């Protein structure tokens, strides 16, 4: 009798265990939450995932043969679409660079794209006196969100003009080398200054555009730029802009101002009323105070540079030979032209574009602006109110109120 009771208890326990196992296995079959899968860096809906599951399966590599890289997979290299809406201006970035500048220009592109162009996807034109390498093209095109174009500079734009006395030019370079004048003995630097002064805006690739933003290797942007700078220029009838200004090396331009005065005497119609002569001269044009906009940053209007006034101006300077007999830079050449041929209100100072080109920094004056726009520059590095800067004079000549807090940086 006792044996039968034990046997019945075993049967009951077995039935209870079976029932419990049944409920546990049933609960484990409840559908789990469905999350979007990713393909090519983009999220897919459940419907998309289901549709893709019907596609032919890709060959599978055996687990033992799959390489172990120790890195996370890159879901795709497509650049994100522009985030700012609205129409775009007919504008481009332009860079004069050599293949050896590849990593320095890559740094510049990332700053420009991250702080500005990822929102707008403007094009980028690269110019070189030689053919660009495949490596240069591959890297830069992968970084730029707009279209990239690569152009070779015509030899006649990157060589000594026929009217230049080669012996005289060589003697000048040797003298400047002895005086330790920066780039004083460089031939390529002189070709660059001449090209930037009179030819870059006439390159066939540039003829497609109306506006340009000049970018050089190893520059940095420290603040987010949330608006379209090209559209701002157009809407406010601006034709030239800058972020840094300073005095030019006197030894590099001893006869530049005399050459300019010869030009204005020959072409008085090219000097506009309401210009910025007082910014570059403190005695009504008798002498030049050497103030200039630092042209390694420029946002400007290409049609102005292609105008008869500017072309006559450059041609006059070019035939005087100062690019080779001295060491005229494109910065004073552009700046004098803008000061004489544009009205004061056609030149714009971009206080809000935080910019660096060795060795100077423009860090926007105004703490709140820097906080609002995620600026990473140190205001103590700001060059604007330094005694060697011409920016304070620009404010005074244009009767502009200086930014709040500038006294602390003086």
UniProtKB/TrEMBL annotation:
Keyword annotations of the record: Glycosyltransferase, Signal, Transferase
GO annotation (BP), single: protein N-linked glycosylation
Entry's transmembrane regions: none
Coiled coil: none
Any Pfam family matching the protein: Glyco_transf_15
GO molecular function terms listed in the Swiss-Prot or TrEMBL record: alpha-1,2-mannosyltransferase activity
Signal peptide: 1-29
InterPro entries, sorted: Glyco_trans_15 (IPR002685), Nucleotide-diphossugar_trans (IPR029044)
Compositional bias segments (type: Low complexity): 42-60
Any one GO cellular component localisation term in the record: Golgi apparatus
Compositional bias segments (type: Polar residues): 61-75
Keyword Glycosyltransferase: yes
The keyword Mitochondrion is annotated on this UniProt entry: no
Region (Disordered): 34-86
Family: Belongs to the glycosyltransferase 15 family.
Database matches in PANTHER family: ALPHA-1,2 MANNOSYLTRANSFERASE KTR1
Protein name as catalogued: Glycosyl transferase
């Amino acid at each position: 009798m006792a044996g039968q009771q034990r046997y019945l208890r075993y049967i009951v326990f077995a039935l209870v265990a079976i029932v419990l196992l049944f409920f546990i296995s049933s609960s484990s079959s409840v559908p789990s939450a469905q999350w979007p899968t990713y393909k090519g860096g983009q999220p897919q809906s459940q419907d998309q995932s289901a549709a893709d599951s019907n596609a032919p399966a890709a060959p599978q590599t055996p687990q033992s043969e799959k390489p172990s890289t120790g890195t996370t997979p890159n879901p795709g290299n497509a650049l994100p679409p522009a985030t700012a809406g609205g129409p775009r201006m007919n504008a481009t970035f332009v860079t004069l660079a050599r293949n050896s500048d590849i990593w320095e220009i890559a740094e510049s592109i990332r700053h420009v794209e991250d702080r500005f162009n990822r929102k707008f996807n403007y094009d980028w034109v690269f110019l070189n006196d030689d053919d660009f390498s495949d490596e240069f093209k591959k890297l830069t095109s992968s970084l730029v969100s707009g279209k990239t174009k690569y152009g070779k500079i015509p030899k006649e734009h990157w060589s000594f003009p026929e009217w230049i006395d080669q012996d005289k030019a060589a003697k000048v370079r040797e003298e400047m080398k002895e005086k330790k004048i920066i780039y004083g003995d460089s031939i390529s630097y002189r070709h660059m200054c001449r090209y930037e002064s009179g030819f870059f805006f006439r390159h066939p690739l540039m003829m497609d555009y109306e506006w340009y933003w000049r970018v050089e290797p190893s520059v940095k942007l420290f603040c987010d730029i949330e608006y379209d700078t090209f559209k701002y220029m157009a809407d406010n009838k601006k034709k030239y802009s800058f972020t840094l200004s300073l005095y030019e090396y006197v030894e590099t331009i001893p006869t530049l101002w005399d050459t300019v005065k010869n030009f204005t005497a020959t072409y008085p119609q090219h000097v506009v009323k309401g210009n910025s002569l007082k910014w570059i001269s403190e005695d009504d044009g008798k002498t030049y105070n050497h103030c200039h906009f630092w042209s390694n940053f420029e946002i400007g209007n290409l049609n102005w540079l292609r105008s008869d006034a500017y072309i006559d101006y450059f041609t006059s300077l070019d035939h005087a030979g100062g690019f080779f007999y001295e060491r005229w830079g494109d910065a004073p050449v552009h700046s004098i032209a803008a000061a004489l041929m544009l009205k004061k209100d056609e030149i714009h100072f971009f206080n809000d574009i935080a910019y660096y080109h060795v060795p100077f920094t423009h860090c926007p004056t105004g703490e709140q602006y820097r906080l609002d726009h995620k600026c990473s520059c140190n205001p103590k590095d700001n060059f604007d109110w330094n005694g060697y800067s011409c920016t304070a004079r620009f404010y005074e000549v244009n009767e502009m109120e200086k930014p709040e807090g500038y006294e602390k940086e003086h």
